[in-house]
Structures are given as C-alpha cells and as structure tokens.
Amino acid sequence: MSQRRDWTIRELRVTPIAFRDPPLLNASGIHEPWALRAIVEVEASDGRVGLSETYGDQTMLDALEAAKPLVPGLSPFDLNLMEQRVKSGIKATRSSTELELAPGSHGAKNASKVTSALEVAMLDLQGQRLNAPVADLLGGTVRDAVPYSAYLFFKHAEHVDKPYPPDVWGEGISPEQMVAQARRFIELYGFQSIKVKGGVFEPKHEIETMRALRKAFPGTPLRLDPNANWSLKTSIEAAPALDELLEYYEDPTPGLEGMAELAKHTKLPLATNMVVTTFDELKRSLQLGSVKVVLSDHHYWGGLRATQQLARICDLYGLGISMHSNSHLGISLLAMTHLAACVPNLTYACDTHYPWQEEEVIVGGRVPIEGGTVAVPRKPGLGVELDRKALATLHAQYLACGIRTRNDVAQMRKLDPTFSGKQPRF
Ligand code: GKR
Ligand code: MG
C-alpha cells in the first residue's frame, strides 16, 4: 500500500463528449456525424486535476464507471497499484459492436483501456506536482517535435443526415480529388508523409489513387491501409504494384496467418494495428514472421509506459514502431506526442485524425501542427488545461446526438440498405 498518504486521489470524473466528424469512408462503412470520446479527470487531495482523453463508447463508459471506486486513496504516483487494481477489478465484457475499427467498443480490452486512461491522468498530476512535462517522467525526449502523417480518407461531401453544414474538404472519391485533399493537408500542416485509408473501393481504384499521389508528391512516403478488407489473394495480387509505391503495406488482409503468408509475396514491410493489439499477439506474430511494423496506440495498449515496453520489444526483434489513431481531440494528441517523443525507435510518422476535427476541449483551442509535427509541450504534466465551457458544449452535443456506440456499418446502411459490412469485401 502506498506510503504517500499526504497526496492522494480524491475522485475520478468522466464526461462523455461528442464532436463533429466528417463523412469519412472506411472498410466498415462511413463515419457517423458525431464522434464520441470521454474526458477523464482525476482529482487529487490538493485540488489538482489530472486529465486524459479516451473512447466514449458505452462499453468504455461502463468500464470507467466500474473503475471509480478503485482509485480514491491511491497516490497519483501509484501507477503499479492502480494497474493491479484495474486488472482484478475491471472485467472483459461483450463488445457493444462487432465493428473491428472501433477499439472503443471492444470489451475484451476494458482493463488495458482503463489503465491507460488513468495512467495518463495520473502522470499529468505527477508532472504538475513535480513541475515536469510528462515526457520527462517517461525518461525524457529524444526529439522536440513528433512527426505525423497526412491521413487521407475517401469521403462524401456531406453526411446523409445533414445535421450541420458540409465540411470544407469536399468530396474525395477520384484520384484527382485525393491528390487535392493531400495538397490541402500539406499546405495547411506541412505533412511529410501520406497515408490513405483504403478498403473502400475496388483495389484497382485505390492503387490508381496511390499512383496519382506518387506522381504529385515524388519522394513523399506513402501508405495504404485497407483495414483487412482485401482477401489474401487480392492482397498478393496487389503486392507488385504497391511494392513500387509504398513505405509499408498496412493491414490489407485479415489475421496473423494471412499477413504471414502475404509477407512471403511482398518486398514491403507489413504494418498493423489490427492483428497485433496485445503482447500475446505480438509473440504469435514473431513466431509466424508476420508483421514488421507495429502501429501502437496507448489508448488500448495499456498506457504510455506499456507502449514504451512494446517499443523496446519491437527494437529487440528488429520491428518498426509507429502510432495508430481514431477520431480524437487535443488531450489525446498531446499524450501521443509526449510518448512518441520518448520512443527512440519510432521509425515512421504517426497517424492522427486530428486535422479532420474542428472542435476542441482545451484552453487555447486547436493544437498547432507545423512542418508536419507537433511540438512536445514543455509545461508541467501534459501541458493542457480543460476549457470548462467547451466541455459543457461538447457534453451537451453528446446528450443530444443519440449515438452511444460507434457504428459505421449502420451509418452506411442509411445510404445503401443492402450494405452488409462483411469483410473481406474485395
Ligand atoms: O477512422 O475510419 C477510421 C479508421 O479506419 C480507424 O477506425 C482505424 O482504427 O485508423 C484506424 C486504422 O488505422 O486502422
Ligand atoms: Mg490501420
């Protein structure tokens, strides 16, 4: 039990929020008009409040609710005790959706998701108390700014429900429109690598899009992520064309075994945020010789320190590491940035959905992305403060929007009632 009784956690507060999200297409369907997150506040006995941001799906809210009695009385330094309590107190549950692309709804990872949400907020508290940025608590930075990639999506110009005016990005379907989307990303944010969310159209169309991007941006690293919506046969057939175009081939086909077989037919390293999402899966992947790049995500890998451990294992076995994302706001972006700044072997620019979002929940508004990078905050803790007015607005949006679990399949069915969402589709 902790000896640091002079500084303890008083309360865990969780506020679900919803923010506008564009009609982005993916293997499962299309994004709903509102993305869900939860803002986690851990209040200490001296009145300081540590923050984190995590999934806002009902599964996650239930798990966080169950965690509320587990933390009062712990010191904000008691990360290991917290993890132990969460491991025994938070059970895996049935997922509220089978949507593979929505880790927020996956009940199997409840304990690691809750651990992560609490760990980030407790590290924020520690940093505030010690007057040190979270990155310093993780061992210090090896870079002052973290590179992110332009995250292109095929997209519609407007949501089918028309809940608010169309976004400024317009339609993104043809290769020309996707080149224009990339150009806008680069002009606005200076990104130096480009990822395309694939698995949406016939592979031929997506490969043509990659060719158009290669022509428009010679020398810029490119990636394509069909989210396991291509069969093994399709993925093997696409490999020779993509070998010439990509820096890595992300989750084209389902399963560790499928990816291991594909690895024999491509010159590219295979990357994943789908088949290696736990340490057990990593072990199995290494045995099979499956993926060569792990796209980590502290939100479901068990936190910032667990991701550092993952990075060390990747280093040991010669695997690359970078970061996956889902729709998120600035608290997540800054937690990702503190972490990525402390991972020496972060070999690729990280993913972020951040430019697709317009709203914010932190004082000062949107976090700047310049030269394709986010600067590591030098303020104590995460370096963010909650904008209470913005929090109230985004919470009111959550209450009004009616969405409680992300469901891109159901949203797609509003456009195409015959859409099955069955994968792999191509
Ligand atoms: O936001 O539609 C999306 C993505 O497809 C996301 O859900 C994935 O989890 O970005 C993710 C990925 O790289 O697979
Ligand atoms: Mg991916």
Sum up the structure in keywords.
426 residues, Enolase-like, domain 1, TIM Barrel, 2 domains, seven-stranded parallel β-sheet, three-stranded antiparallel β-sheet, 37% helix, globular, binds D-glucarate, binds magnesium ion
Describe the structure.
The protein has 426 residues and is α/β, with parallel strands linked by helices. The protein has 2 domains: 2-132 and 388-401, 2-Layer Sandwich (Enolase-like, domain 1), CATH 3.30.390.10; 136-375, TIM Barrel. It is 37% helix and 15% strand. It is built from 14 helices and 14 strands. Strands 7-8-9-10-11-12-13 form a 7-stranded parallel sheet, with helices on one face. The chain has a 3-stranded antiparallel sheet with strand order 1-4-5. Strands 2-3 form a two-stranded antiparallel sheet. The model has no long low-confidence stretch (mean pLDDT 96). Residues 225, 227, 250-251, 273, 295, 324 line the site of magnesium ion.
